[in-house]
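queue> pop job 88
queue> type: inverse folding (structure -> sequence)
queue> payload:
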């Protein structure tokens, strides 16, 4: 069918919503630009870290000299005091340098976290309905909290521990080798077993942590949806059932966390065990070498100290591996989000002809199908809406009214050469231009947990109180606002919970009127008020928007009696068009609906807030 939108082919879906890479480490390139941006900060931080390690490695040399002096009888109070003073001075320098590297390196991890969070937020705001139909709010919240925290830990303490362990391990090995190379080889003999163990467990760490993060997303989404639907849950007396479901999700989350804990819980003790085996070997063979005079007592004490220093890198292998596996897994999930692209984007080459303050709309054989749906939502619609026209659209539930509004507002992609504004194909215009020309009041009203004034001025922050009151009067909500305790500064709660359905809808209409855009569309935006009030508000809006193109969708006919023209839709088609009086006289379909609604106002309830109608 011409103009229908079939399901995306796999190649296009893969481009728009790419699957997670089989190699999660490829996501590391996402953070490379931030290392380049802060290279000087990182370089100075690691220089301070390495200086701390070097000073720590020098302390055993001082202890060795002191022990050898004691053994040979060369020690004096002055020399021992000098050794102690040197160690104290080194300790003070280490403390200062530790402050430097912590501020620079851990500070970098927080800067990285900030940049990633801002990038995620900015990117999420560019995505469209198709994406949010696949991803839950809970999943987005988990990415912005748990996953981002894992990346920050990996690029903060994880990276610090990795570099520290690498330098400390190599340096300690070198200092030990200087004392005695044979004893050094004996001490490090168990270490290959630790490397093999880490390699075997790292893949299991990745898989287990991925499962845990996905379950956290599910848990978060369940909590969010429960809070949002709390009134419905109470009305249906489902508190206990929701609590049981939450408990089940929580137990599953704990079970998988315990599996994860068992993996790296195995890695840590085994790392310590291998370190202690090395110590046992050194005590046995090194003690004999000291007795035989192959090495001095000072060498033996220094060697033991270096071995303890070498034990930290061995222990750190398990901890760093865990942090990096968590961080890389989370970074891969964030990278997957950032790779997603909106289904609807501005064209690469756009029309340079600007839209005027008066805009007409032309539809040419417009057909549209939702992906996966066999029946088209709109079928062969041809319609001219001249600039400044007050147009009403009526029809039964499922007739395509909301779909038409969504296409005009560019929330879905219209087929080429089917939707025009002032003769310009909307596909040749930037999204911002088209959306900036339309003030849209959808069925599903969205309000923020802020003041009444904030919600009205959402799209126009420079509006004065006089402007706000003017549009509130036009939407017949001003008197009710002034009756509130704090007037326009009254906070309305989560999603406007403190307001009635009719008040929420009229606030949304006032918000759209304040934008003063060439086109205003109200999609069943007054379904929560009675018919007489709806009629009065529509009449007030029509007067206020004289000269603007105004499209009002309603499931009720009587309030649209003052519209200059009314379009009747049925099964995705335009079946009738004319004034109210003309349609009553010429259209049996229209007249039947009108008389049924007048005699039984609730015969045709408003469309649900599910899939577009």
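queue> result:
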């Amino acid at each position: 069918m011409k103009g229908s939108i079939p399901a995306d082919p796999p190649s296009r879906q893969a481009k728009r919503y790419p699957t997670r890479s089989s190699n999660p480490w490829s996501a590391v390139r996402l953070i490379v630009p931030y290392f380049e941006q802060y290279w000087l900060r990182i370089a100075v931080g690691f220089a301070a870290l390495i200086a701390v390690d070097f000073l720590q490695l020098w302390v055993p040399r001082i202890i060795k000299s002191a022990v050898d002096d004691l053994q040979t009888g060369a020690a004096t109070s002055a020399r021992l005091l000098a050794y102690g003073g040197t160690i104290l001075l080194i300790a003070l320098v280490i403390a200062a340098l530790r402050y430097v590297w912590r501020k620079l390196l851990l500070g970098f991890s927080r800067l990285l976290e900030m940049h990633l969070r801002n990038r995620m937020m900015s990117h999420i705001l560019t995505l469209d309905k198709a994406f949010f139909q696949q991803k839950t709010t809970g999943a987005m919240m988990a990415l912005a909290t748990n996953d981002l925290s894992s990346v920050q830990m990996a690029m903060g303490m994880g990276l610090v521990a990795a570099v520290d362990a690498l330098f400390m391990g190599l340096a300690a090995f070198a200092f030990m080798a200087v004392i005695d190379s044979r004893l050094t080889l004996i001490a490090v003999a168990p270490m290959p077993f630790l490397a093999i163990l880490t390699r075997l467990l790292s893949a299991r760490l990745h898989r287990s942590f991925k499962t845990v993060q996905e379950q956290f997303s599910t848990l978060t989404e369940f909590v969010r949806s429960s809070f949002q639907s709390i009134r419905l849950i109470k009305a249906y007396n489902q508190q206990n059932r929701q609590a049981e479901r939450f408990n089940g999700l929580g137990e599953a989350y704990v079970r998988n966390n315990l599996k994860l804990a068992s993996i790296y819980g195995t890695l840590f003790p085994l790392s310590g065990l291998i370190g202690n085996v090395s110590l046992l070997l050194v005590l046995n063979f090194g003690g004999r070498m000291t007795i035989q005079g192959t090495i001095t007592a000072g060498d033996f004490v220094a060697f033991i100290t270096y071995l303890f220093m070498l034990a930290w890198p061995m222990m750190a292998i398990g901890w760093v591996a865990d942090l990096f596996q968590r961080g890389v897994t989370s970074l891969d999930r964030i990278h997957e989000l950032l790779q997603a692209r909106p289904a609807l984007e501005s064209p690469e080459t756009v029309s340079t002809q600007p839209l005027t303050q008066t805009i007409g709309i032309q539809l040419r054989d417009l057909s549209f199908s939702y992906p996966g749906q066999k029946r088209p939502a709109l079928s062969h619609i041809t319609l001219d809406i001249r600039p400044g026209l007050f147009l009403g659209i009526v029809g039964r539930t499922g007739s395509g009214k909301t779909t038409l509004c969504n296409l005009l507002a560019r929330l879905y992609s219209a087929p080429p050469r089917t939707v025009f504004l002032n003769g310009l194909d909307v596909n040749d215009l930037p999204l911002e231009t088209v959306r900036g020309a339309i003030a849209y009041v959808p069925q599903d009203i969205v309000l923020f947990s802020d003041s009444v004034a904030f919600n009205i001025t959402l799209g126009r922050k420079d509006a004065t109180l006089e402007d706000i009151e003017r549009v509130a009067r036009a939407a017949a909500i001003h008197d009710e606002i002034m009756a509130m305790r704090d007037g326009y500064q009254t906070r309305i709660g989560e999603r406007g919970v403190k307001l009635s359905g009719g008040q929420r809808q009229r606030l949304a209409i006032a918000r759209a009127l304040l934008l003063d855009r060439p086109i205003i569309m109200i999609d069943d935006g007054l379904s929560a008020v009675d018919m007489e009030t709806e009629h009065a508000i529509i009449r007030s809006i029509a007067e206020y928007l004289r000269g603007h193109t105004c499209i009002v969708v309603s499931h009720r006919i009587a309030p649209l009696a003052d519209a200059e023209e009314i379009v009747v839709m049925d099964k995705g088609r335009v079946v009738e068009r004319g004034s109210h009086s003309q349609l009553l006289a010429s259209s049996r379909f229209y007249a039947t609906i009108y008389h049924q609604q007048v005699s039984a106002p609730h015969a045709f309830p408003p469309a649900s807030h599910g899939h577009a109608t």
